[in-house]
Structure formats: structure tokens, C-alpha cells
């Protein structure tokens, strides 16, 4: 039985991916700091092939413990490591607290790097394995009003591209998801110290949300296909098109705060 370990599995994209892979016969490991969310997600899945793991992706020790626990339950298999946990930071860069900046850097970059590095031996030992990283449309072009978040997702994109080349000889496939705006608990985060959430800001800008179920299907396709980066949603596709064919126009839009 194939096995997938999902960070950020308590809600949002992680939960949707867990449900889809489980429905298609996979063993699923859920990892998150949200104990209530973990229990809720686990309750949706078959108990005989689901494990839950409380962890902080910023902790190498947690990574080592969870990887060992999950592969013990899976019979040594780690077919997919889904590096999905992340936090949102939005608003004017000059208003961002150093605490929020550090948290975003630690979760969105260090958490992904630790997962890749410590998951590598398990992936290498599983034929046809895949490291799947959640990047973002914000990693396509630097996004005004989300500078730190955008920077972290560029880092995830770069890591994905580097490891795709480095690990190909070991038979490990490396992929990323690059979704636009997804209506998940991440969007409840306040913007730049204000009382407005990221979700409210997106709605006011007239931008669309992509359902998590669509992202889950994209994750399945990414794991089973050969595309390095999988764009998800109209926002991501528009940004990719504009960054390639109309970079000047996109730059102007960002300067006007209409990215």
C-alpha cells in the first residue's frame, strides 16, 4: 500500500489531499500542531490506514520522530512527502513585526528544508517516491503587499527546482503546487497589524478563490505526472502568463497595488 505523509494535515489543502489520497487507497499520515484539527481530519479517514502526528515543522527533532513513526506504520514506505504546512503574512512590509517575519521564514522555508533533508533517506529507500512542496502563485512574481510570504514561496520554488535536478539520479521526483488564493484557515490572518483578514482583502480586490478539492486533484496529478510546477487556479495561470509575456504591465500593476 502506498503511503503519503502530509504536513499541515489538520485543515485546508492538507485535509483535502488526505481525503483524496485515502479515498484512492493510500495510507495517510497527518502531521500538524493543531490537535483538534488532526482529530477532525483523522475522523474522516479509515482508522486502519491513518496515523496522526503532533509536530512543529520548525523542529528537526519533531521531523525525525514523525518520519520514524510513520514509516514504522507504513512498513518502511514513504511514497510521497507532502511539505504543505505554511503560514500567511500580508500587509505593508514596513508594518510587519519581526516576530511575524521570523515565524514565516521558519515555517515556510526552514520547515520545508527540514522536511526535504530529513525525509530524503526515506524517499530514497522507496522506489518511485515524490517530494511535493506547496509553493504559491506568490512565488511566480513578487507580490506587493505580501513581500515576506512571496519571498518564502520563491525559496520553495527554488528548492524544488534544485532538488528536481539533484535527486533525479536517485529516482526521487520533486514537484511543487503553485495555487492562487485558496479559501483556507490561512486567510483568517490579519493584514499588516490591521483588523482586516487576508480573506477580506482578497474579496475586496475582486480575486477568485480556488476550492481545496481542485488543489487536491492537482496534487494527485503532480505526484503522478512529469510537470515540475503545477499551477492551480486562474490567478496563478494569469500571473505566470503575465510574468512571461507582459512583465512590464505586471510590474505596473504591482506598483499600483493591483497584483
Largest sheet: 7 strands, parallel
| Name of the CATH architecture | 3-Layer(aba) Sandwich
Q: What global shape is seen? A: globular
Q: Got a strand count?
A: 7
List SSEs in N-to-C order.
EHEHEHEHEHEHHEHH
Rg (C-alpha, Å): 18 Å
In the CATH scheme, what's the topology name?
A: Rossmann fold
Q: Report the top-level CATH class.
A: Alpha Beta
CATH superfamily: NAD(P)-binding Rossmann-like Domain
| Adjacency order of strands in the biggest sheet | 3-2-1-4-5-6-7
| Count of spatially separate domains | 1
Given helix and strand content, the structural type is alpha/beta
Query: Can you give the helix content as a percent range?
Result: 40-55%
Strand content: 5-15%
| Average pLDDT score | 89
EC number: 1.-.-.-
Pfam family, one: adh_short
Keywords: Oxidoreductase
Enzyme class: oxidoreductase
Amino acid at each position: 500500500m502506498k503511503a503519503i505523509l502530509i504536513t499541515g494535515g489538520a485543515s485546508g489543502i492538507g485535509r483535502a489531499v488526505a481525503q483524496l489520497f485515502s479515498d484512492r487507497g493510500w495510507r495517510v499520515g497527518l502531521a500538524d500542531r493543531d490537535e483538534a484539527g488532526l482529530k477532525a481530519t483523522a475522523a474522516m479517514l479509515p482508522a486502519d490506514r491513518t496515523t496522526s502526528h503532533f509536530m512543529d515543522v520548525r523542529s528537526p527533532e519533531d521531523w525525525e520522530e514523525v518520519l520514524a513513526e510513520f514509516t514504522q506504520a507504513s512498513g518502511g514506505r514513504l511514497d510521497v512527502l507532502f511539505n504543505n504546512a505554511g503560514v500567511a503574512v500580508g500587509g505593508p512590509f514596513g508594518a510587519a513585526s519581526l516576530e511575524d517575519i521570523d515565524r514565516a521564514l521558519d515555517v515556510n522555508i526552514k520547515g520545508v528544508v527540514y522536511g526535504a533533508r530529513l525525509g530524503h533517506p526515506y524517499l530514497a529507500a522507496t522506489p518511485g517516491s515524490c517530494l511535493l512542496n506547496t509553493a504559491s502563485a506568490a512565488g511566480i512574481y513578487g507580490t506587493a503587499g505580501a513581500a515576506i510570504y512571496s519571498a518564502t514561496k520563491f525559496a520553495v520554488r527554488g528548492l524544488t527546482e534544485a532538488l528536481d535536478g539533484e535527486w533525479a539520479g536517485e529516482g526521487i521526483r520533486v514537484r511543487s503546487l503553485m495555487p492562487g488564493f485558496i479559501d483556507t484557515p490561512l486567510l483568517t490572518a490579519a493584514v499588516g497589524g490591521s483588523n482586516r483578514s487576508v480573506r477580506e482583502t482578497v474579496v475586496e480586490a475582486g480575486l477568485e478563490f480556488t476550492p481545496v478539492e481542485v488543489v487536491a486533484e492537482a496534487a494527485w496529478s503532480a505526484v503522478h505526472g512529469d510537470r515540475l510546477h503545477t499551477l492551480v487556479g486562474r490567478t496563478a495561470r494569469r500571473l505566470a502568463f503575465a510574468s512571461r509575456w507582459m512583465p512590464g504591465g505586471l510590474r505596473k500593476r504591482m506598483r499600483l497595488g493591483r497584483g
